[in-house]
Every structure is written in structure tokens, then in C-alpha cells.
Amino acid sequence: MKRKTFILSIFGALGAFTLPSWLYFRTGYKALVIPEMLSAISTPQMISEIGAAYLKQHPGEGDSEKLSCLILATADGNSISVRRNALSIRSFIKNKIREDFLHHRLRVIDGWVLSHTEARQCALHYLKKS
Amino acid sequence: MHTDARQLENNTRIAGDVCIIGAGAAGISIALEWINSPLKVILLESGGFDYEGEIQDLYRGKRTGLPYYPLESSRLRYFGGSTGHWAGFCSPLDPIDFKSRDWVPHSGWPFGAETLAPYYKRAHHLLELSEFEYDWRYWNKKDPDFEPLPFDEDVIIPKLWQFSAPTRFGKRYRKNILEASNVELFTYATVTSVNADQYGKQVTSVTVKNMTGKTLRVDARYFVIATGGIQNAALLLASNNVMPHGIGNDHDQVGRYFMEHLEITAADLLLDRPHYFSAYMLDFFFTKVRIEMAVHEKQQVLHKILNATAAISVKESDQHDNAAPGNRKEDEITSTGKSNQSDKHLRGWETAEKYYHEQKPEKPKPRQSTAFELFCRIEQAPDPDSRVTLDIEKDPLGFPRAALHWKFGSLERYTLRKLLELIGQQAGLSGLGRLKMKDWLADEGDAAFPSTVAGGWHHMGTTRMHDDKKQGVVDADCKVHGIGNLYVAGSSCFATAGAANPTLTLVAMALRLSDYLKQKLGRCEQT
Prior knowledge:
The structure holds 2 protein chains of 2 kinds.
Chain A: H1 2-26, H2 29-33, H3 36-41, H4 44-57, H5 64-71, H6 86-102, E1 106-109, E2 112-115, H7 116-129
Antiparallel strand pairs in A: 1-2
Helix pairs in contact in A: 4-7, 5-7
Chain B: E1 2-4, E2 13-21, H1 25-33, E3 41-44, H2 53-56, E4 62-65, E5 89-90, H3 113-126, H4 136-142, E6 156-163, H5 169-172, H6 174-179, E7 183-187, E8 190-196, E9 203-209, E10 215-225, H7 231-238, E11 261-275, E12 289-295, H8 297-303, E13 308-314, H9 330-333, H10 341-359, E14 369-379, E15 387-394, E16 400-406, H11 411-430, E17 433-437, E18 486-488, H12 503-526
Parallel strand pairs in B: 1-7, 2-3, 2-10, 3-7, 4-16, 10-18
Antiparallel strand pairs in B: 5-6, 6-12, 8-9, 9-10, 11-14, 11-17, 12-13, 13-14, 15-16
Helix pairs in contact in B: 1-12, 3-12
């Protein structure tokens, strides 16, 4: 009995450690916290600063889980799973950003004219770093 | 014909049919139209054929309100006027610029864009521009690289600018004027007073002075004031021998509504891969046509903003030298007291033009970049408190110096932010990159501009056009309300400023006025 408990504990601990890592590296979580265009034209530090400024404007969104849900929310009010692969998440976010720009869902943060979705990505980036 | 007024006897009387006061872009444009007509035209120029500091100093004046250039450095007083330091930017006003807009107080012209269309074509000829074509598709057929950014043209339109040589009217048209048998040019002939009859209904003469201490008088049937956007108002205000508040100023309108174009670098456009944007680049003396980004009329109505444009250039840290040879410096705006900047600007242009014509350099190759800057030009809303008055100080000829109080409100900054938001939106939508406003614009609630915001030396609105004499100085024909034979030419007649540089429009309006006077004088001859 003791041996069985011990083995389960080992597997449990391993799972607790590897699952989030797997989620981070193999699923779309990375795509979630790194706004693609901004990462190409600015720095991680700048993205964090934009994120911090966004949260000052939207203090009710200062929670990683909530921000993830908002970023991954679909037009019908549901949200796609963060466990999807990176490619799928990236594609979803890219489309959503385009839709934001198309429908003027914009946020001007520290002078940057951004889609609301990528502004939230910056906020998530900031929370992750801090 | 030409006469140096300094050589005339004191108290000489000169007579003609039409007297044009001022030989700048507007005055010369009108005079050229009258060559070989049976009527005698008198063209009066305060300066000579070359820049002279003593004459230029007559333009010195007082500045209050928002920081502005010294009045003597933003215009030129010699034959050819301010075309001497003109950068050659030309674009017609947009149809919306002529309309009354409920969110822009005092907006609306007595006529629409279609009225000026034929005159724009003629003005193109005088300004030595290419075809009167402002649709990018026309130029794209000639050069496939000439194409706009992939933006929605219902939001951000590709607005075209054409570039004059630039035509220096003083050099280009000097021979035409001097050889005209019916046009007599008087240099060193500064008009210090427009003299009305005892009833204040007709102008009978103008008083002319010069530095020799001589006073002359010019009699004519019709008078056209064409001395520039500040001086037109100053001359009317100072002409108070019969009307104590000045000619055409019964309703306290003369000098009010001074407008400029607010010009400032306001944002960066950052891209994820390099681009040329060759249709947007400006290389002085080489570029004949280029695109700027402007807000579509529908968006101006939707967002209740003024007209505005943005030009693209490679970001400063990565920029080749494409600045105007006579480029203004920020410190000049805040300078006080005497300044010799006008001479410096003029020499800058002359040196650059000489280099271009003699050395014949190759056109700079377009450079790719991922970082560009947006230089924005914003229409200033008409504001009666932004105005030209007379200072108590007088110049050596005894003429009161002009005093400029420059003022604008919050709509201009709101417009600038909205322009940048819309460009940013289109940059995002097209996948080009992202727009970042300069730090001073980041705070939406802040209504201020930095001290570096400047005008383009575009002086407009001080004798504005309006059908109602209580709301304007001149009528739709540029005739001063209440005065039978006095007309004003130039950008001082603009009711609103639009976002385009004023030279093309003021020349077009001068040609229109010229046609009108020809008709009027023709009718007089017949009767």
C-alpha cells in the first residue's frame, strides 16, 4: 500500500511539473503571451511596458486566467482551448487581431495603436514576467 | 515697363486702370493676365528685384499667443514675394474644405470646389507643374512603382502633391512683366495707405512711400491688394483716414481668423519587414509628384474632425538628407527680437538650386527601411481670436507694424490623434506594421501641442471670404464688402485652410479674380 502511494506521488509530482511545461512549450500558451507583430518591431521590455500601461487603464483584467480567456474568446462568447497547438492558437489570434482592426476595436496604449487583443497579449506578457 | 520709384520726384502722381499692390504670387499672376490688354496696369512692389535686409525689416512685427516664427522670416518682401523661399508643394483643396461643417465653426465658402477647378488648371501652367491630375491611378500608369499603401481608400486616401520647380515668380516672370507695354512695375513703392472717398464707398488712390522719404500717389479705377496673408489685413486696418477702424472693417472682421497649417512630426510607422514606399518619398528638385495619406471625407464627417494629411519619410536616425534646403529650425520659432533667418533661408535655397542646376546630381536612390516617421499637416479651424492687429510701433515709413496673436483650440489635436489612429488602424489591418504616436500625443486628455509645433509659413484667413459682410471681409468675388472698387487677392481670402499648401489655390483664385475684373472692366468700357 505504501509502495503504491509512493509511486502515485512520484507520478503526481512529475505530472504537476511537466504538464504546465508541456502546455507552455507544446501548446499555444507561448503564442498567447507574445504578440507576433509587436515582437517583430519592438522589444520584450516594450511589450511589458505596454502591458503594464494597459492594466492601468483596465484594472479589472489584471488576472492571467481572465486575460487568457478574453484573448481566446470567440465571437459567439465561447473560448477556444489554450491546450490547442501553437499554430492553431497563433492563427486564431492573428485572425482576431485582424478582426479587431477591421471593426475598430482599438486601444491606444502609450501612443501605440493596437488591436484590443494584442493589447491584452501585452498585459499577459507583463503578468507572466512579473 | 519698370520704374524705380526712388528715382521719381516727390509727390509724383501715377494713374492707371488697375492698380495691383504687391508683386508676389497673387499680384504677378494677375498682372500677367493683363499683358497686351488695352488697359493700363500699375504693379506696386515694396522691394526691389533682390532681397534687401532694410526692406525685409519692414515685415518685422509683434507676436503673442502661441509661439510663431518671426514675422519677417516667414514671408519675403521683394519682387516675386514669398515664392523666393517657397518649397513648391502644390495640391488643390478638397471638396469638403469648401463646405460648411457643423463641427467647425465659421466653416464654409460662398462657392464649391467646382468653381475653382478651371482656374486650378491654369494655375498649374503658371506654377510650371505637370498635368492637373491628382488621381494616383493616372501616375501609376506611367510608373508601376507609383502605388499607394494597401489601405482602404474609404478611410485613408492617397492624396497627391505635385511639386513646382519651385517657380520663383520674381525670376521666372520678370522679363514678361518688364517687357509688357501696358503693365508698369514700380519697385521700392510701399503702399502705406489705401485712400477712400469721403463716403467710404470707393477707393480713389493709394499712398506710396519709400526709404528716400518720397511720397507718391497712385490713382486707378480698380485696386487689388495682394501683399500676403498678414499684410493684406494690416494695410486695410492702417487705411483709416476716412474709416477710423480701417477700410472694410465696419464689422470688426479684418485681421481675424488668422490660420496656419499645424505641421509636426507626430508618429512612427514601424514595419516587420523593409519597404521602399517610393511613391511617398520626397527628394527636392527630383520629385514631381508624391502621395501623402489623408482622411477620407466620410471619416472627417463621422469623427467630426478637420482635414489633415501625413507624409512619410525614413525615420530620422536612418534618414538621408531630404530636408528642404531652406528648412526652418525649431529654435527659430521661439526666438525673439530681430532675426536674419529670412536671408539664411533664401541663401539656403539659392545654394541648393545652384548645386542642382550646375552639378546635376543623380536622383538619390530610394532606400528600404522598417522605420518611418509621419510628418502631419493639420487644418487649423477658423477662430476669430486668432488675429492680426496693428502694433503701436511703426516702421521707418511710418506704417504700423503688424501684430500677430496666434491661437487655436482643441479640435486640431483631436484631429491629429484621430488621423494617426486611422492610419494605425489601416497599418494594422493591412498587416504592414504598427503606428506609435510620439510621446507628447500619448495622453488623450492632454490638449496641448509641444512648442515645436509650427506653421508652414501659410498665412490665411485674415480677410476671409463670406457672403455676409458681418462674417467676412470680402465677398465671393474677392471684393471688399461695402467698397465698390477694392479687391483682395491671396490666401487671406480663404474661409478655411484645408490641409493643402495654399499657393496653388491662391494663384487659382487670383486668376479667377483677374477674369472677373476683366469682365467688369469690359462691361464698363461698353457702357
